[in-house]
Amino acid sequence: MKITPLQQARYQYSPKLPGMLRGGIAEICVKDGAPTQSVADQEKIAALFPNTYGKNEITFQKGKNTSATKKQVVGVILSGGQAPGGHNVICGLYDALKATDQDNVLYGFKGGPSGLIEDDYVIFDDEYINAYRNTGGFDIIGSGRTKLETEEQFKIVEGVCKKHGITAIVIIGGDDSNTNAAVLAEYFAAHNSGVQVIGCPKTIDGDLKNEDIECSFGFDTATKTYAEIVGNIERDANSAKKYWHFVKVMGRSASHVALETALQTQPNICLIGEEVAEKKMSLAEITDYIADSVANRAAKGWNFGVAIIPEGIVEFVPEFSVLIAEINELLAGAKADAFNALATWKEKYAFIEAGLTPASMAVFAQLPEGIQQQLFLERDPHGNVQVSLIESEKLFSEMVKKNLADRKAKGEYKGKFSPLHHFLGYEGRCAFPSNFDADYCYSLGYNAFMLIQYGYTGYLSKVSNLSSPAEEWVAGGMPITKMMNMERRHGADKPVIRKALVELDGKPFTYFAERRATWAVETCYVYPGAIQYFGPTEVCDLTTRTLALEQGK
Question: Which has the closest alpha carbon to 141: 163, 116, 165?
Fold first, then answer.
């Protein structure tokens, strides 16, 4: 395989560890913190996790290592969607494991949680690991979305661990994956299996976040990648001066990616789903908001602009959520066959009109025909609309176009509106990790092994104080149950890690809200450029604007 000069250079990069993890395994000890409880539903969560609930938070510090000497055979899996830095979590885990005892072994289970169930693995060695240091992607062992949640699955995993003498499993994933890690840890503890489970917080969406997890890994690199592209688009828009670019970015359940990208690039428009929900904004109100920017800029002679749209924006629009629920009900069971048997869209439209409430039909009628049809053609395995597949960037540009035509007919608008569309998704998930993510992920993996060595289970590897230099980062662990609450999933109450949404009273959103009126009318674009790996620290190790604002930097 041909190796590029950048890839070769990244192999040589030495990730920075928190100060307390430097200087050798023998010099790392544990400081106990306070006992924990879940963020909500304490009695229910405690009842479901009697063996792992309420444990202390811990931090590592300099001092004599008091952990028991024991050969460790560890298994690791990558779970869910890719995020930059995943390879470095495994590299940090491997290096700590081998630094403790060269006889320790690391199994990589292939294809995500299914690799554990199917006993499909690779045993890592130096040559294998060294080919993936500081690189993007999850191709070291692949990933998958199989959930570990049933008694039958747990028994199979327990058997696989027993077969190989595995003492601990590290699950690298998002909120659902780490929920599964907590449940698996409880099962192993209840059955005295002798297998520990440690989680690592991953997701580019940024919604695995709380007072303890300051930032999920991959968010920094992904948003810098998107910001580079948006900055390039802004430069092009400001050069050609004739296009409005509608850019959809990842983030179905939260708008962190959109907000961070906007903070880095200062586009004319950035929608924040959490604000849309809070204000109960309608599609028409959102359309008016964007169209006002287009019209005000056109009045200055600027028939160009950039709008950032979060992937899951329509799910935050109350009237659209009601419409989706009604469509799901409309096509439940045999009614779906009756609908699909209709030959023309005209016949199907009449079927829809007869089945929806007048309020939802009014919302449906606003939508461009392509989006209307998409709502009925794209179904998930449960028969529901796949909202994430809705081309919301095209939805809003079409609605803005119609809005502007109405304004023009009234003599209220004289500009030109030529929209272009982009979706920035997969471009950010496997990028070469930034120095921040390379350091952070390596630290998470190294720290995960320290949690294993000291006998913890059901814990999340935690590295904090992330807006400071890596030397000042704080490494430790927290019980995964601390982040959990009960939610209704598939008709049953289940313990899950609470997703973190954009806080409308938080410093990042407040900073954005104070400036967006100016950005909407003026051309205030910022061009971040490509991620920098070599050069001044203030350029190469820069953290996200979100994290810097949150921590007052």
Answer: 116
Find out whether 186 and 48 touch, Cβ atoms under 8 Å: yes
Q: Where are the beta strands (DSSP E) in 17-104?
A: 28-35, 56-62, 73-79
Using alpha carbons only, how large is the chain's radius of gyration in Å?
25
Distance of alpha carbon 343 from alpha carbon 211, whole angstroms: 54
Which structure tokens are listed for 251?
A: 């983030």
Residue 28 lies in a domain: no
Distance in angstroms (rounded) separating the CA atoms of residues 58 and 452: 13
Cα 319 to Cα 238, 295, 362, distances in angstroms: 35, 26, 10
The token duo for 276 is 């849309």
Asked if 31 contacts 54 with a C-beta cutoff of 8 angstroms, the reply is no
438 lies in some domain:
yes
Q: Are 173 and 197 in contact (CB under 8 A)?
A: no
In Å, how far are 246, 285, 358, 401 from 320, measured between CA atoms?
A: 20, 13, 13, 20
Structure letter (DSSP) for residue 385: B
Token duo for residue 267: 């586009």
Cβ 297 vs Cβ 373: under 8 Å: no
> What total number of domains does the chain contain?
3
Domain annotation covers residue 18: no
Strands 459-464, 474-479: parallel, antiparallel or unpaired by DSSP?
Answer: antiparallel
Query: What is the value of pTM for the model shown?
Result: 0.95
Which whole-number Å values give the CA distances from 431 to 112, 128, 135, 174, 175, in the listed order? 20, 20, 8, 18, 22
Alpha-helical (H) ranges within 266-333 are 273-278, 283-299, 313-316, 318-330
| SS3 of residue 21 by DSSP | helix
Domain containing residue 359: CATH number: 1.10.10.480
Q: Are 70 and 168 in contact (CB under 8 A)?
A: no
The answer to whether 263 and 512 have CB atoms below 8 angstroms apart is yes
Residues 407 and 363 reside in one and the same domain = no
**Other Cβ atoms within 10 Å of 540 Cβ, number:** 14
Mean pLDDT in order along the chain per 10 residues (553 residues): 87 96 93 95 96 97 93 97 97 97 97 97 98 97 92 96 98 94 96 97 92 94 98 98 97 94 98 98 97 98 98 93 91 85 94 95 93 81 72 96 96 96 95 97 98 98 96 97 89 88 97 98 98 93 94 85
Q: Which residues are catalytic?
A: 205
